[in-house]
Amino acid sequence: MTAYATLTAAQLQQEYDVVTAAFEAAKAKNLKLDMSRGKPGKAQLDLVSDILTVLSTPEDCVADGMDVRNYGELAGVPACRALFAEILGCKPSEVFAGGNASLNLMYDVISKAFTHGLLHSERPWCKEDVVKFLCPSPGYDRHFKVTESFGMELITIPMTEEGPDMDAVEAAVKDPAVKGIWCVPKYSNPQGITYSDAVIDRLAALKPAAPDFTIMWDNAYCIHEFDGDFVPFRDILTVCREAGNPDMVFEFASTSKVTLPGAGVAVFATSEANMAYMQKLLTVQVISYDKVNQLRHVRYLKDKAHTLELMKKHAAIMKPKFDAVVDMLDREIAPLGIGSWCRPKGGYFVSYDAMPGTAKRALALCKEAGVVMTGAGATYPYGKDPQDSNIRIAPSLPPVAELEAAMEVFCVCVRMAALEKLMGK
Amino acid sequence: MTAYATLTAAQLQQEYDVVTAAFEAAKAKNLKLDMSRGKPGKAQLDLVSDILTVLSTPEDCVADGMDVRNYGELAGVPACRALFAEILGCKPSEVFAGGNASLNLMYDVISKAFTHGLLHSERPWCKEDVVKFLCPSPGYDRHFKVTESFGMELITIPMTEEGPDMDAVEAAVKDPAVKGIWCVPKYSNPQGITYSDAVIDRLAALKPAAPDFTIMWDNAYCIHEFDGDFVPFRDILTVCREAGNPDMVFEFASTSKVTLPGAGVAVFATSEANMAYMQKLLTVQVISYDKVNQLRHVRYLKDKAHTLELMKKHAAIMKPKFDAVVDMLDREIAPLGIGSWCRPKGGYFVSYDAMPGTAKRALALCKEAGVVMTGAGATYPYGKDPQDSNIRIAPSLPPVAELEAAMEVFCVCVRMAALEKLMGK
Fold it and tell me: Pfam families from the xrefs (chains A, B) (predicted)?
């Protein structure tokens, strides 16, 4: 195997013939494989079956002197708030325990900013001429889509190896129309990057022109190491408070990838001042979230140490899948010099940067051969990757054997797309 | 006991002395009783304990070929949509199964109308100069509050014995700023009125000036008879479709008062065109709701017939409570001619109309004597009852003995407030 850049025209053609034959062979297998979303696999779901029956009697449903089966307690079961506070490193009074989806809580914060304004807003965002939102990219398509759906202007911020390019962020927040930034600070989606202390300090110390500038801190993978021990991470609420910006951040987390993706518990954490403000708005929307499920999680997960033990079991299932993906890229693609990636230690994704201008084509080929991936461009605002290069690989759902089959197809397709590009096809 | 209106000044004073002594005696008991919200009582929650363990293994969590533990299926578990469709009399494709709170689904519809507009909106409601909403009153405070929180102008529509005053509604919808109406069509909150066929027909046949006028049809008590058999009720989607207004209604229902108030399943039902439109907006907000809990409900409730059997058990607990309330009013208040009420056959409330100008005072006295009721005025827009007369009594939570103690205090307080009024105090 030789780097494609060094091949002659004849060698390129020869390689193209080989790759095309491999592609046709793959197609003939009529595969139906899915690496499109960060869904846990069945073995992970089976790990936590005991949560289904952990509450089985009326007496089980009493906690903190409260019958969780009935209405009430908007901010959630106190023991559940305390559990997440321990995991995130903040205070229970700073945690709001909601329903099953942290995305929904994020949407609620943005939606309320739009309709009512946040604590320090001069007016609801719907009354602003223009609202801009910072999107470190590559990033999470569903984040970008939330702000896009409210007509906000999405501003791409490049990602560096230690988080968002803070020079770009600091320059951008001088514009009072810039109202916030999306962050996945630990094992970022899709690159698996953990923000450095320096980046976190600069984020917390921002002096934005907008008084209601908000960091949307999606700590989705806060305890989701699959390679090595739990890595402690700073509490962003404390960092912001110490930097003189106590109300500048909403943090989000959930058990979607701890217990059950469809039936977990999601929370936001924020300053007590923000909490009081948000509760005044949220009490109009809902009497209380599903506290029975919150209590199920408390009884099942117990505390942070016990939860981390469970995460080790998830890791044992996840690591071979990530190894399969990255090992194959190292073996099949590295020598060809047509792509780059990193080997994350946590989170749910591998980020692959294809030869510029070939990502869309490579994924169209994958689809033709029965392998579904997250759409090319999805990791950039408006679904448009200016380099047409970044591809998000989600190894968690398929069993290893299927994953290897899918990755073989993927490697063939990125090679084929690269060759077409080099050959001017 | 003699009607207060016929008493002389001296007799009023004599009665006032008696009632004041009774009030002081009540206060001395240091009661702490709550009739403020329509919360089911513990006996009702205990009825459904088997739902906690109805799903106990991974295999139990597969339905319609789908593993409900994982992400996906925005509109909910098909079997759950089918169950609600059977109960409501519509098609499964017209049902969206969400989280635990129908209030949250109502809020989402209004919020999306405000931020994005509904299917037939010319623009999002936040871009309208003024938005008005019709509030049949007395009605449900949380409904009114949702629209109030978005700055809409609330218009009071009088309730008649067969539903909202349709002459008033038909006149009001000629104003293009009038965008919708709140309805609790069966066993209305708080009066327990079921809309007549004539009212329903006129509602469905409205020709509002606003193309996006929406009936918010909160069928909260669709199967909640506590006195007598289930009373069939027309499917509002069909009625609207047949009247040429297929997209004019969103219906809401939940199992909050069927299984567990804090952990039930809520749905909305609407035309397929509305459904497609709403799903495009909702998919930005959430990947999927708690399908495990949806499936729990399907397995536990089975079908409409089986659900109605469960409702009979709820009825057996509820009826003595309503009887205790209404019997006491019949005995203690009726002869005095200072209030009126009706005897509902379903729902969660008794509506009491006190002598005009005395509701606030009566409830302040109740509070002083340790009995908490829904605030006076709550059943009217902005919490302001122009007559200061309507009081919502919620008998469901306290056991009968407590309820009787609370109603004794209530009767003393409404008498005292009436006497003060008559005596010009």
Answer: Asp_aminotransf
Q: Please compute the mean of the pLDDT values over residues B295-320 and round it to a whole number.
A: 98
pLDDT in tens, B120-148: 999 999 999 999 999 999 999 999 999 99
Provide the pLDDT for residue B397: 94
Burial of B176 (0-12, 13-18, 19+ CB in 10 A): middle
CA angle B112, B115, B117 (to 5 degrees): 65
Mutate to test the interface with A, among B110, B115, B148 (most CBs of A within 10 A): B115
- Closest Cα of chain B to A148: distance in Å? 10
Tokens describing residue B367: 């509070």
Closest residue by Cα to residue B43 from A71, A287, A65, A69: A69
Locate the chain A residue with the closest alpha carbon to B293.
Answer: A263
Residue B373, pLDDT score: 92
- Cross-chain residue pair A56–B60, CB shorter than 8 Å: no
> B149: which chain A residues are within 8 Å (Cβ-Cβ)?
116, 281, 284
Tokens 């000629």 correspond to what residue?
Answer: B174
Instruction: Look at residues B292, B291, B74, B102 and name the one whose alpha carbon lies nearest to residue A142.
Output: B74
CB contact under 8 A, A99 and B261: no
Query: What is the amino acid identity at position A172?
Result: A
Q: What confidence score (pLDDT) does residue A274 get?
A: 98
Section B232-247 average pLDDT: 98
Q: Count of CB atoms within 10 A of residue A209's CB?
A: 12
Q: Which among A71, A225, A304, A20 is positioned nearest to B397, based on CA atoms?
A: A71
Chain mean pLDDT for chain A: 97
